[in-house]
Specification:
heterodimer; A: Arc Repressor Mutant, subunit A; globular; B: 256 residues
Chain lengths: 194, 256
């Protein structure tokens, strides 16, 4: 992971200098993961692609805004992708129940990525499997509230309205769900994900 | 439920961005004064990032990169061909158009020239000076940087964000322009604060940033804007706060 982090720092430094080769490398490295994240929110491959394109354009134009002291590049990319996806979802005016919220749902649009590096791909797949395995340990109710909050950008009170779950219970399920995830993942697992 | 669990509930939801505005302010006030709360938040944020990792990977279409590079390599920039890292370093922020360039460009759009004429006439001379209508608008726009008093807000960190308050000629009112700001999290907006002799007054929020973090807002106050000795921009709950809850991101001060 440290190696990846170092490469990311180098890439963003080169992107700030408008090095297209570095941007291509960054795209190759993260596009499938960002696409998956965007798709989980907007539930449309076309829209997800628009989101991810916006994110990379922003990296190209505003890469200098990334601050390595405040977090890693992957987290920054995830955050931008999530925020942009939620913006698109809100603008589309679709109701949440028109889109998927399940954690383990498999869609026909989801194509397993092989990438250019089988070893790295296997490692990433391993990470995703690890997290999905941890998520599967949560109760369905916990998965639901976490999914609505994270992927659909709903506030706790919106979740309560959508699901009929009392507001206090929504908050408690979010906390307990997150603590449970942490319990399932060891420190070394978390370090790999950092 | 005890207080500790209630606080943990709020911090966990804060990490996911699912709190309502009043609760966000509550958590941020707590984070300001409690290292324990900040540690809790860091832990929950780490978990939140796992959510993203859980999404199955998905391929882009075959034309994705072509379309992307067509967007970032416009025709007027033929030099956008691949450069190597050996090229002379040039920060991205330095290549971005300045606030003035963007402001001038905005007003220079043909469909906005009539509207900008009214705005400029109001700002520059008031409604009594209709002679503006007979002048070449573009020539005036190019020169208005030298006509109107301006106050430049600078970033408190290395974000590269900038801001500008363009005062009316009598320094009573003005327009705030910000650029290069980070996209706001859900339920948050940037807000201007007007400060004089240590008294902080709430200014307007800037709700509609574009993708490049650019936005503007008319600023009015009980006393002339030119009388304040400091302006600051912070990130606040949507709709604005009565007192600042976030750290200053942009600042202008009379004495530097």
């Amino acid at each position: 992971m440290e190696e990846t982090h170092q490469e990311d720092i180098q890439l963003i430094g080169r992107i700030v200098q408008q090095d297209e080769a570095a941007l291509r490398r960054l795209i190759e490295k993260y596009k499938t993961r960002l696409m998956g994240l965007a798709f989980k929110t907007v539930y449309s491959k076309e829209l997800a692609e628009e989101v991810v394109m916006d994110v990379f354009v922003r990296v190209w134009e505003k890469g200098g805004m990334f601050n390595a002291e405040k977090g890693n590049l992957r987290g920054w990319l995830f955050q931008m992708t999530r925020n942009r996806s939620i913006d698109y979802l809100r603008k589309s005016g679709r109701r949440v129940d028109d889109t998927a919220v399940g954690w383990t749902d498999v869609h026909e649009n989801v194509i397993p990525s092989t990438g250019d590096n089988p070893e790295k791909h296997a490692q990433q797949k391993d990470l995703a499997s690890l997290v999905q395995s941890a998520l599967s340990q949560l109760s369905e109710d916990q998965q639901l509230v976490l999914g609505l909050a994270y992927f659909k950008g709903l506030s706790n009170s919106q979740i309560a309205n959508e699901t009929g779950i009392p507001l206090g219970t929504v908050k408690t399920r979010i906390r307990r769900g997150m603590l449970k995830l942490k319990d399932f993942l060891s420190e070394s697992d978390l370090a790999r994900l950092a | 439920m005890d207080d500790q669990n209630e606080i943990q509930d709020l911090i966990a939801s804060y990490a996911l961005g699912s709190l309502d505005d009043n609760e966000v302010a509550q958590v941020e006030a707590l984070l300001e004064k409690s290292q324990l709360a900040r540690d809790e938040l860091a832990s929950f944020q780490q978990i939140a990032e796992l959510m993203a990792v859980s999404a199955p990977e998905m391929e882009t279409s075959a034309s994705f990169e072509d379309r992307l590079f067509a967007r970032i390599s416009p025709a007027e920039q033929p030099a956008a061909a691949t450069k190597t890292s050996a090229a002379k370093p040039k920060p991205a922020a330095a290549q971005a158009p300045t606030v003035w360039e963007r402001l001038s460009g905005f007003f220079a759009q043909p469909r906005l020239q009539m509207a900008s004429g009214f705005v400029m006439a109001f700002l520059l001379f008031g409604s009594g000076f209709l002679m503006m209508q007979n002048l070449d608008m573009n020539r005036q726009l190019a020169g208005f940087e030298n006509v109107l008093p301006t106050l430049e807000l600078t970033a408190t960190d290395d974000s590269g964000a900038t801001g500008l308050v363009v005062l009316s000629s009598d320094r009573e009112h003005g327009t705030l322009v910000i650029d290069g700001m980070a996209q706001t999290p859900a339920g948050k907006e940037y807000q201007l604060w007007l400060i004089k002799d240590g008294v902080v007054e709430a200014g307007p929020t800037i709700p509609n940033l574009n993708e490049e973090g650019y936005g503007s807002r008319w600023v009015n106050s009980d006393q002339p804007l030119g009388d304040y000795d400091r302006f600051e921009i912070t990130l606040e709950p949507e709709g604005g706060s009565e007192t600042p809850t976030g750290m200053p991101l942009l600042r202008w001060a009379l004495n530097g």
